[in-house]
Amino acid sequence: MEQQQCGLMTSDSPDAASQQLYQRIRIKAMSLLAGRELSEAQLRQKLQACCAEAASADLLAQVVAQVVEEFRGQGWQNDARAAEAVWRAAQRQHWGPLRTRQVLQERGLASEVPEACTEITWVEAAIALLNRRYGACTSPVTPADQARMLRYLAGRGYTGGQCHAAFKRWTQASV
Fold it and tell me: Rounded to 10 degrees, what is the CA torsion of 97, 98, 104, 106?
């Protein structure tokens, strides 16, 4: 007796059902990784969510673990590459260290901090962001403008010390 379940044909044979589930999850994993780099944690979460109703939780967890391990072995999934992708996005979007670490942690990559992330001078990056947003400092800055600029940097994920140091150097650069 065959029945349609989650877009996949299953039979009474547990072996056939697990093989079909394995194939479905493998195809879904390829599709997900073809779109962008995912951490192992993200990949597991997405695979378990896509086929949660297709099998028992134990079987699903086993098959997902098997597929993820296979993909890691083949080099198709790599946490270091996923962390590098987050780092490149942080650079493009001018995130500070706090925001970058938060996103890495959300994606299960807290232990995979890219080397470039530790080498950057965050104050220099904040100064570059101030120059990009407000141009060169040509006149004295009012306290209200200073507060607005510091809030802008803090909202981008820079620490208070980095914000103040960058602002001070930004204003002194024009003098």
Answer: -170
In whole angstroms, give the CA distance from residue 64 to residue 56: 12
pLDDT at 102 over 70: yes
Q: How confident is residue 120, by pLDDT bands cut at 50, 70 and 90? A: confident
Say whether both 11 and 71 belong to one domain: yes
The C-alpha atoms of residue 78 and residue 36 are separated, in whole angstroms, by 12
pLDDT exceeds cutoff 60 at 168: yes
Of 54, 55, 53, 67, the residue nearest 23 (C-alpha): 67
Q: Does position 36 have pLDDT exceeding 50, yes or no?
A: yes
Q: Beta-strand (E) ranges in the chain?
A: 3-5, 8-10
Give yes or no: residues 112 and 54 share one domain. Answer: no
103 is in which domain, residue-wise?
78-120
Token pair belonging to 58? 């134990």
Q: What is the pTM of this model?
A: 0.74
Let me know: does 55 contact 17? Beta carbons within 8 Å: yes
